[in-house]
Amino acid sequence: QEQMVESGGGLVQPGGSLRLSCAGSGFRFDDYSIGWFRQAPGKTREAVVCISSDDRLAYYGDAVKDRFSIWVDAAKNSLGLHMKDLKADDTAVYYCAAGPSLGRQGNLYHYWGQGTQVTVSS
To answer: What contacts 54, CB < 8 A, 6 or more positions away?
Structure first.
């Protein structure tokens, strides 16, 4: 059974850093585009950063460029998100996802984690 599980969320002060991790099972990361999405209260889900299966193409949301970076360990079927210079607007539930095509649309991704809360507040 395909599964993705996030970890690493929590409370961080503005300007701080946080690392999220995601472990996948039941499928191979090599075969999928993978990425991170987030959903803040009262807002629609948005793509944060996504990367193609061959690591050649990547999409970064405008709000997180130069602050967030994705890493992938295909051998361990895991990925992570390093977030720095966090802002209150980054507060959201963060989800990892995997799908056959690279894109910003959530419906391109078939497998989703349960989400991990990130709260940026002083």
So the answer is: none
Strands of 15-104 (E only): list them: 18-25, 33-39, 46-51, 58-60, 68-73, 78-83, 92-99
Q: Answer whether 25's CB lies under 8 Å from 46's CB.
A: no
Give CA angle at 40 (107, 103), nearest 5°.
30
pLDDT digits (tens, 9 = 90+) for 36-74: 999 999 999 999 999 988 876 788 889 998 999 999 898
- Classify burial at 45, counting beta carbons within 10 Å of its beta carbon; exposed 0-12, middle 13-18, buried 19 or more: middle
